[in-house]
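Design job #97: recover the sequence.
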């Protein structure tokens, strides 16, 4: 997961620790009094005046977050934002509040929640948490995780249009093929308790002029893959001429999607995989043009 530096309510650190906004969905939450690892307050770190701070440990916060599980029935989003001692300075920098008793740098974060579905979210403070990083509270969603979900989801097949229309064409005539289904498709899923938006874009089309077992020739059964969705007459860019008359073929069109995703409205990232959707064959009768005497 990628976190972003903030200049306001959760600012950046003087010592280079990123301010993070971490969103977690869960079903419900019961909030006890804030407390430290041993149920007491701990002394602050050496960033400024030493002061007493009360904050849950990462382990306690994880138990709180995972208490009722996550998933489709969730009713809250959660995030953790860095707390500052006093106001931001003139450069918009945060004087962070140290916590914990280990040699590892830990700082106080505010765990906040907002009901799912509110736009914009209405964040309220739940409890302070002592963290090295908000990554301690959440599993990172990898590109491989999203790639598996990308392939699992159902994406629309491309509808193929053939000219001449009405399921008939002429032998040796360049038959025109195209699709108008070129728009991006978006679906939103929940992975590891987080909202993931997946966007699929058609980028390649595989044209199959005939199907094994129909009346097509070997040339008809050799597919063509293009980055062009084709176009109707008179601007046709994808055509195929059938050389065997008085037969029926079943052409079809497969579409290949590339994808990108973002977690909790963060930056878009590429999905390291493609996904191909197979199209259903259509019946096309190949006729021979015969001269007719017209008076």
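Job complete. Output follows.
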């Amino acid at each position: 997961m990628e976190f972003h530096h903030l200049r306001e309510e959760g600012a950046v650190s003087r010592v280079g620790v990123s301010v993070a906004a971490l969103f977690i969905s869960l079903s419900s939450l019961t909030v006890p009094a804030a407390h430290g690892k041993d149920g007491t307050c701990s002394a602050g770190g050496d960033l400024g005046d030493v002061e007493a701070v009360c904050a849950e440990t990462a382990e306690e916060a994880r138990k709180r977050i995972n208490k009722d599980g996550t998933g489709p029935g969730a009713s809250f989003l959660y995030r953790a934002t860095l707390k500052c001692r006093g106001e931001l300075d003139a450069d918009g920098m945060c004087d962070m509040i140290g916590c914990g008793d280990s040699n590892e740098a830990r700082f106080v974060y505010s765990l906040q929640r907002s009901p799912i579905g509110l736009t914009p979210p209405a964040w309220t403070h739940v409890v302070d948490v002592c963290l090295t990083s908000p990554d301690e509270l959440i599993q990172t969603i990898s590109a491989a995780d999203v790639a598996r979900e990308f392939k699992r989801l159902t994406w629309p097949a491309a509808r193929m249009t053939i000219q001449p229309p009405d399921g008939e064409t002429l032998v040796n005539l360049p038959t025109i093929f195209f699709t108008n289904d070129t728009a991006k498709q978006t679906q939103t899923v929940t992975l590891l308790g987080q909202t993931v938006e997946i966007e699929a874009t058609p980028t390649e089309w595989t044209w199959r002029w005939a199907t094994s077992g129909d009346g097509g020739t070997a040339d008809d059964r050799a597919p063509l893959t293009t980055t062009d969705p084709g176009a109707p007459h008179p601007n046709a860019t994808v055509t195929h001429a059938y050389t065997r008359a008085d037969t029926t073929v079943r052409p079809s069109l497969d579409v290949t999607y590339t994808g990108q995703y973002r977690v909790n409205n963060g930056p878009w990232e590429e999905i390291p995989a493609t996904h191909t959707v197979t199209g259903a064959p259509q019946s096309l009768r190949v006729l021979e043009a015969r001269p007719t005497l017209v008076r």
